[in-house]
Amino acid sequence: MSNDLILGAVGVLQFEVVAYRLKDEYGVDASFEQVGVATARWIRCADAKKLEEFREKNAMNLSIDAAGELVYLAPTRVNLQLAQERAPGVDFLATREHAHAVAVD
């Protein structure tokens, strides 16, 4: 995990909107680069040992969101499927709204 910030959006236009608002409202120039992430999943696991094993094996694909929650960043859908198959007992949540997460099958 690094200190890079990642902004996710649906559609390229959203990045232009964010850049415009940062400049207009805060006087901040922003630039965006694509990252190799196809999808993100918030991670939950009731078993601390399994979670630690998952963290060790997947460190290159893990990040922390603004709320301090663990997130798996999958470069492809196939990668996500393999990670899910290799980590029984670990929940991969498609959304996290405010203080709770919602699983999507």
Q: What is the CATH level 1 assignment of the domain at 36-102?
A: Alpha Beta
Give the oligomeric state of the chains in this entry, treating copies of one chain as homo and distinct chains as hetero: single chain
- Uncertain stretches of 5 or more adjacent residues: none
Order of helices and strands: HEHEEHEEE
Shape verdict: elongated
Q: What is the CATH superfamily label of the domain at 36-102?
A: Peptide chain release factor 3, domain III
Percent range for β-strand residues: 15-25%
Rounded to an integer in angstroms, the radius of gyration calculated over CA atoms is 16 Å
CATH topology of the domain at 36-102: Alpha-Beta Plaits
Helix-strand category:
alpha+beta
Give the number of helices. Answer: 3
* pLDDT averaged residue by residue: 90
Largest sheet: 4 strands, antiparallel
Distance between the termini: 27 Å
Architecture per CATH nomenclature, i.e. the level-2 architecture of the domain at 36-102: 2-Layer Sandwich
Question: Fraction of residues in helices?
Answer: 25-40%
Overall number of strands: 6
Give the strand order, joined by hyphens, for the main sheet.
2-3-1-4
